[in-house]
Amino acid sequence: MAPPRKRKCARSTQRRERERIAASRANESSELRQQRQLADSERTAAARACETEDERYSRQAANAQTTATARASENTEERCRRQAADAQRTATA
């Protein structure tokens, strides 16, 4: 494991990169967003098509852990917003 200083620098770099991506996406057109989402979906599908069973279970477990952590720390307003979005997705599916 990396020393604390290197981990902190890595987290800071990752945060700045996420902020840069978010700013870039805020300014993109709907056509560019659709193209990016399609490319992301294709890349994800290709990666999942060749992952092993162990990799799939590991990915699913990590996703479940991330979701559980996020839900454990959300406040009432965030929970209501998430539940409303889930209901909307279900209604339009």
TrEMBL record:
Residues 14-45, 74-84 have a biased composition (Basic and acidic residues). Residues 1-10 have a biased composition (Basic residues). Residues 1-93 are annotated as: Disordered. It comes from the Eukaryota. Residues 59-72 have a biased composition (Low complexity). This is Uncharacterized protein.
